[in-house]
Structure formats: structure tokens, C-alpha cells
Amino acid sequence: ANKHKPWIEAEYQGIVMENDNTVLLNPPLFALDKDAPLRYAGEICGFRIHGSGVPFEAVILDKATGEGLIRAKEPVDCEAHKEHTFTIQAYDCGEGPDGANTKKSHKATVHVRVNDVNEFAPVFVEKLYRVAVTEGKLYDRILRVEAIDGDCSPQYSQICYYEILTPNIPFLIDNDGNIENTEKLQYSGDRLYKFTVTAYDCGKKRASDDAEVEIQVKPTCKPSWQGWNKRIEYAPGAGSLALFPSIHLETCDEPLWNIQATVELQTNHVAKGCDRDNYSEKSLRKLCGAASGEIDLLPVPSPTANWTARLSVHYSQDSSLIYWFNGSQAAQVPVVNGPNARQGLSDHFTLSVWMKHAVVPAKGRREEETGICSTTQQDGYSHYSLAVHGCRIAFLYWPLLESARPVKFLWKLEQVCDDEWHHYALNLEFPTVTLYVDGVSYDPALIHDNGLIHPPRQEPSLMIGACWTEEKTKEKIKGNENSTDTVQGDPLSIHHYFHGYLAGFTVRPGSLESREVIECLYACREGLDYSDFDSLGKGMKVHVNPSQSLLTLEGDDVETFNHAIQHVAYMNSLRFATPGVRPLRLSTTVKCFSEESCVSIPDVEGYVVVLQPDAPQILLNGNTHSAHPASDFEAPGGVPLFPNLQITCSISHQVEAKKDENWHGTVTDTRMSDEIVHNLDGCEISLVGDDLDPEREYLLLDRALLQQQGLELVNTSAYLTITGVESIAVYEEILRQVSYHINHGAALYERKFHLSCTEMNGRYSSNEFTVEVNVLHNVNRAAHPNHILSSQQFIHRGHHLPAELSGHSLASTHNNPNSNHAFSFSFSKVVPSAATVIIVVCVGFLALMVVLGILRIHSLHRRGVGQEVPGAAEGGHTSTGGKDSDMFWDDSALTIIVNPMESYQSCQERAAEIAEGRATEGMEDDDDSTDSETPDSPDSNDMDDRHIIGKSDSSHRY
């Protein structure tokens, strides 16, 4: 009976040579059966191999001993399969010749390894290798040649060494195929080297075909940036301008695996760190929609705000105050009560400050420097402070000194210690705190709420530039000491002094500035820009710092890097950008595959020139002369100075005209003017000549109207100014309502006013618009002879009135039937007393001349009568000479016209001369030819004296 199963080893290791079929096994293949020596049951009939696609078979060599053999069905190929694994099982012959009740052994694992034969020779990857190198350098590796072997075993498949077959060349090749030069190559010598290399595998089989190598020597190359301009001009309003549109990096064929470039724009010399809006702080807050209510903690020194009087003061480019804190000074701000109290900030406020701070090198640990320190009282004492420590800025807030725990918010920012101007705005809405630096928001990097902090004294205090120590002394400051210049030994125990510049320090209690307002107020309007992120190549990185003054690029491909840096741009969003130079620097760092031969890229230094923007032309137009009766000026509303004022703003810019064939293709430039919608930030009305006399005259303007528009008014005897940013339409409406008023009875006749307006904090000014105002005073005449012409007939603008009567005109007169040979004047009450005296004197002299004229008429009449008798006797008739003479004087009443507007001195001199001449003629009884000459004669030297002048002498002004 077949009681037992055959037995074989559990695992076999076999080796077969490539291109052979006999497998050598270890241990040999034998199967044993305990039923031996029984026939059939104790004999091994065969072996079975299990596995699909196994290229081997097992045969029995001796049934009695169970010896077997494994062989390949066909020659095996090492390059196809290096190893084969399968299982084998032995079976006996059963209980009879028919093989009934056959038993099988367990399955054993067989591993067969195919041994390689060095049948393949090395083959080079390329038949020809070309490379170019720069002269004068020793390279660790100029290039690498490579050969491969088709054999499967490490012994025959690996290339053991390479060999240069061409003799006497300055090159070596190592076992890895790297070729290097043994001496510096010169472009002046051999410019091209050609040689042959071969390869051997570890079976010492040489390559079937050798490889050719060509090395070209190039002249010295200087790695650098090529294709850039040192001067870059930027026209305001141009948007984004590429700084390096054609730049590319020359690496002199040095392979690089990393490139880093930094573009730095220097704008710290422009205003406070960069170009911002040119408006004043107050105007800018209005334009950005910031609500009012902020409290200035560092105001201009004054009797009511004297705590800044001892600080060192500087002025910025925009004329704003800058305070210097030298590390031993502080300003104690008085705490007051009322609606403008600087206390009661609670847990809801905004701090805003301009700061320029640098880390002062000092031995040991740097001390914290306090910008503001405050203890307030509102439902208990609370405390806060803002300080800098190295490059960190910290805000400490203690809601309730009695119960709550202090919280300290920390930010680590490079802006804190770069010695440049930055604006900091801190919004506290406890427990949320947000810090804005130059309009960019930052969340706290770290928050501490478990530090050991000594509580300050429980007393309302506010200090700028330092802080007091913990509660040790209870000494209080006297109420009248609003300012302290603290030094060592101060009873307040002051410490943590600030060292740097502060400006525009304000606090806004009870409300927060919005993100949009802060960005509008303090964000930089110029900087570096990169907007071509869509076409940014693979592996490229671009980073721009918050102030847009530093842009960093990183990549690993030269061509991709060139494309990226060509899109780095400068942008200035201001319509009227601040002109000037912005230095520019491009720094580059590269990493090469070979550190020894790695190139160095020199820096690129240039500058952006922001051109002078096309200045806005602010033009003031309107009537330049105004004449009104005195009663209009005496009215409560006065007389408007600029009733039809028109303000326009335009920009003139250069344009290129079209080519004209008549001018042989020459191109001429012209300028175009485009009207723009713009704002004004101030207008001033000044006087020409003496200042206004407040007791007699003044300018009127409704102050409430200005307050509605958020404008400020300053009205003095020398000028009237309106300040605040507003549209041109608003300024037009307000200026049209400015009136000139004089008091009743004031002897004022002429005034000249200058009007000018400015824009952008006085950066641009308008033309000087001059208005001349004449005050017309009425003169009423009681009577005059019929033949005297009315005043309008004597007005002649080519002559001038005396200075004291400038601007006056005579009113129409009425006939007086009771006076044919004499007349008098009656003046209105508005004529001043001095002018009345002069006119009365002139009238007196006029009456004297009338009397003299009448006497002369009678004298001539008697003379004619005395000569009548002799004439009759001789001629037998009456002489007609005397009658004609008598009729002449009767028909031509004596007409003497004297300008009553002459000065007293000229009137007196002329009257004396005429009186003396007439008296002499009467006494001598001389009938001179001048006797018949009347004032109406065109030959009279006094012709001009008969005109009443309507315009005053411009040399006399009031």
C-alpha cells in the first residue's frame, strides 16, 4: 500500500549559462519516499513544474533513487530575463502500473539565475560631441561623453573607463567620461580642437565605434545683463511702464540651476518715503471721506498747546511739523475733561502716527522705546501703550487695572527699523487689533496675555515719547504744568524713551478708521509693479514687499527668467506726480552646477526720471472794473466783488502735428489744451495799496456757507483767505458772494483787489485776477446859467480828477430863475468836509470874476456912448460901432466856465492871475485884442480845464 508521500527540499538555487539549457541546482534535485523499496509505492515517477510561461522542464533520471534534472526548453537570454522563479513537486508511482492512488510531495521553490556572457560591445550615445568654451579658464568638466553596453550583468554591462585616442592635446577624460582641459585655452591659439575617444566595459571589450569630440574656444565673455537703459523717463499719467523691456541675461554659456534677482526702487527722498497725494493732511482726509473727530496729540506749539514747545522741530517737504525725540525727552499731554477730552478712549479707538525709527547700536540688550503711554479713567482705570523694540512693534492694552489681565500684541516688521518714514495706524476694537503700515494691514504675529507686567499708577496720564514706571510713587503733576522736558531724576520716574522722529500723532476716540480710508490716506502712490502673472513661466516666483519698493524674482531657467524680468514695471497713480529722480538697482545672484567656474553677475544701476507733469492752468475770468453808487456799498450786503467770476482748469500738452507736404515732410509740434475737472484748495483776496480800515470798510462772506462745505475762512484787514479742498464749482459759488462794504459817510472812492487760487497745497497757482472798484458819490448843484453844459457833456476819460475827488461825478443840475449872473452849489451830505471847503473857495473866486466881468461891461458901454456924438456930426447919422458892440455883449452873456474839481492850490493861483489881468485892463482902459477872447475860444490855453474827469489818477489809491 502507498502509505507515504514523496519528500523534496523546500528551496533550490540554480544557475544556467546564457545561450545554454542545463541548470545546475544547489542542492541537487532528489526525491525520497519512505515506501521504498516497495515497487511503485516507493518509486518516484516524475516532477511537475508549476507556473505559467516557465521556460524550464523537470525530468526524472532514476526512479529508484529519485534523482531529477531541470533544464531549459530552449537557450535562455540574460538580456531578456536575468532570473526565473517557479515551484516544483515530486510524485510517486502509486500502487500499481496504472498509477492508482498516486501521492505528491510538497511544492518546493526554485530560483534560477541566468549568467551573462560578454556578447555586446560598448556603444556611444552620440557619435559626435560639440561644445564651446571661453578662453582663459580651467574647467572641471567641459563636457561628458557617454557609452552604454547591452549586456545584462554588472561585469559586462558597465563601462569601466574611457580613453582619448588622439595624442598631444590639452585634455583629459576620467572613467565617467568627463573631459577637462589641462591648460588654459587661448582664442589666439587653436580655436577648435578635434579628437577621438573610446570606451571599454568591465570585460575589457572596446566600443565598436569610437566617438568624435569638437571643442571650440571662444573669446572672453563677461556675464552681465544686456539690453537695458540707465535712464528711464516716466511721464505722469502713463500708468505702468516696463523698466527693462529688452533686457536679457548673458551667462557666457555657464549652466545655471538657480537665479535670484532683486529690483530695488529708492523713493525715501520723496516726501515721507514715497510719492503720495500732494494735498495737506486736512484736505486729504476730506478727499478720502475720513470723518472728523481726531485729536492732535503733537500740535503746533501755542499758548494753549505748549507741551510740544520744548521738542526739536523740523519741517518736511510738505511743510508739516516733524518732532525729533533724542532719547531723553518726552511730552506730557494734559488730560482735560469735556467733549474734546483726550481720555475715555475705552476699547474702541484708532491711533495714527508717522514714524521714522532706526535701531541704535548699543551694547547689551536693546531697551523698549515707547511712542505713546496712556492711562485713562472710565468705569475704572485702563491703560495702553505703543512701543518699538528693535524691529518689533508692540501694543500693550490693559482693559481694567483692577481686575483684567494685560494683553500684549506684537508685530515683527522690517519697516520699524529701516530708518525710513512709514505711517502706522492701529485700530483697536478689543479683543481685535489691526495694524496698518503705509495702508497695508498686518495681523499680530504674537499675542501675550500671561506676562508679568507691573500695573501703572492709577492716575489719568498721557505721555508721548516715553512712559512712566510701575506704581511706586504717587507724586502728581501740578495742574499748571502742561509740558515736561523730562530728564534723569524726574519725579515721574520716566523710562523707555523714544529715539526717532514722530509726526501727525492723532487719536480718534470712539470710532475706527475704515480700511478704505486708511489706504486712501497713507498708501504709496508709486512703486514697482508686476502684473503679468498669467504668462509667468514654470518654476518662477515673484514677490513684492508691502511698500512696493522691493521686488524679488527667482527661477531656474534663463529664458523664462528673462521673460519675467522684462515685465517688471514702475507705476505712479498720481495725476500730478512729484517730479525728480528715483534711483534703481538690479542685483542678481546665480548658482551654477560647477561652483568653481560659476559666474558672477554685476549689479545694474539706473534711475527713473519722473518728468514734470503738465501743470494745470487755473484761469480766473470776469469783469475787471466795477462802479456803483455809494449807497450800494453802504447796503447791508455790500457790492459783490466777483459777480460773474468764472474759474476754469485745463492742461496743455504737446502733440505732434501731421506732416505737411508743402513743408517737405517736416513735422511741427503744437500744444493742445484739455479742460479737466479739478479741485482747488485755497483762494486769497488781497488788496492793492493800504489795508482796509475796519472802522470804514470791510469784506463780507457768509461763514456758515463755508462751514457747510467744510472750508475755513480767515478775514483780516489785509486779506481774505478761503482754505480747504473743494471743487471749482463750489469755489466759484462762494467767491461770487464775497462783497465789499463801506460804512455810511466814509470818504472812500476807489479800491483794487487781487484774487488768486491754488491747488495741491499751493503747488499750482492761478493767474492774479485784479478787480477795480469805484465808489460814486453824488454832487447836487443848486443852479447854473442856461448856457452852461451839463456834467455829462464834460466827461472825458482822457483826463483825471484831483486825487481827493477821484471817483466822483456831478449830478444833473436845475435852473434857478432868480439868479442870472451868479450861481451856487449845494452838496449832498456824502461830500466830505475837506472837499466842501475847497469848492466853496473856488465858488468865491468865481463870484469875484463875475463881478469883474460886469464892471467891464459897464465900462465898455459908457465908452461907446461917449463916442456916439462925434460920429453923428460927422456922418449925419448914428454910428453903428457902439451899437454893434452893445448888441454883442447883450447877445453873448458873459460865459466863464471853471472846473470846480480843481485842487485848492490850482484854483487859487488861476484866480489870482485872472484878477490881476482884468484889473490892469480896466485901469488902463486898453482895448486889447484879448478883450474879445472868451473862454469858448479854441485858442484858449485853459481848454482842458473845462472838462470834468470821470476816472481818477491811478497814482492815488485807497
From TrEMBL:
Membrane-spanning intervals of the chain: 834-855
Keyword Manganese applies: no
Membrane topology: Single-pass type I membrane protein
Pfam families to which the protein is assigned, alphabetical: CLSTN_C
One annotated GO biological process: positive regulation of synapse assembly
Compositional bias ranges of the Acidic residues kind: 922-942
Basic and acidic residues bias: start-end ranges: 910-921, 943-958
Major localization class: endoplasmic reticulum
Region span, Disordered: 907-958
Assigned keywords, A-Z: Calcium, Cell adhesion, Cell membrane, Endoplasmic reticulum, Glycoprotein, Golgi apparatus, Membrane, Postsynaptic cell membrane, Repeat, Signal, Synapse, Transmembrane, Transmembrane helix
Segments forming domain Cadherin: 8-124, 125-225
Subcellular location, record wording: Endoplasmic reticulum membrane; Golgi apparatus membrane; Postsynaptic cell membrane
Superkingdom: Eukaryota
PANTHER family in UniProt: CALSYNTENIN, CALSYNTENIN-3
Protein name as it appears in the record: Calsyntenin-3
The organism of origin for this protein: Buceros rhinoceros silvestris
